[in-house]
Design brief:
Elements (H helix, E strand, L loop, with lengths): L2 H25 L11 E5 L5 H19 L5 E5 L3 H9 L5 E6 L8 E2 L4 E2 L3 E6 L15 E5 L7 H4 L4 E5 L2 H9 L5 E5 H11 L5 E3 L7 E6 L3 H19 L2 H6 L5 E2 L3
Helix pairs in contact: 2-7
Amino acid sequence: MKAPMLCLCIQAFANACRICLACSLLAWPTPLFSNEPPCLVVNGPTGDPALTQANFDWTKRLIQNLESRNIHCKVLNIDHWARANKMFRDGTADVLFPEIVGDPEQPGVTGRPIALTHGFVIFTRHKTGPLNHIDELAGLNVGTIRGRYYPEELRNISGIQIEPGNSLEQNMHKLALGRIDATIEYQSDGVKLLNRLGLRAMIHHGAEFGVQELAYRFHQSDQGMRLRHHFDEAAQELIDNGTYHQLFTGTTQRMVTD
């Protein structure tokens, strides 16, 4: 065989080897890192442990539904809203629940409403109240929870002294001891906690205000929009087949179907 012909044969053989190698790499399954799911859902706390658990169970059922759509997620319960919000803001968490629809302080976008809040009330000691409007808090020391959503008016009224705390239970104890003058909380969560702590005789509340919608919150990105689409579809399916009503009946949740 002449030298030029030999060179051409060698080059053709080398090209064929490259093609075969490329095809074999494409056919080889890509490793899956099962300990790093593509989606992490963080559930924040409520003032009612039973409702927090119901929210967790609901999210687990929703995630099971997402598996059929090839969306793989896991869910974590986080005890403090400040930590839950930080996990979402720094990208550790892909989804946050339950979140106020239209909260201007939070990044990202919310999906379809899952529940309604019961509205806020102002809790005070009996000798102080009842107080029915946020503007009545001017000049008072008001306990709040770090990382929690509150009506915008609370930040806009001058003279209100905000004292952040870690939990509603901590704020109720501080209120009973006179270390703060008032605290704001959803009526159902606050009343249930007062009953559990045995403080109903010392603390009461005024009229309800500020009912809001609650939903899952997603990052404003391509992946976030994809997750929102699938979460919304899965949630609607669970509402339609009765799972939603089954999980939240008997809890303090105010359901969107009521």
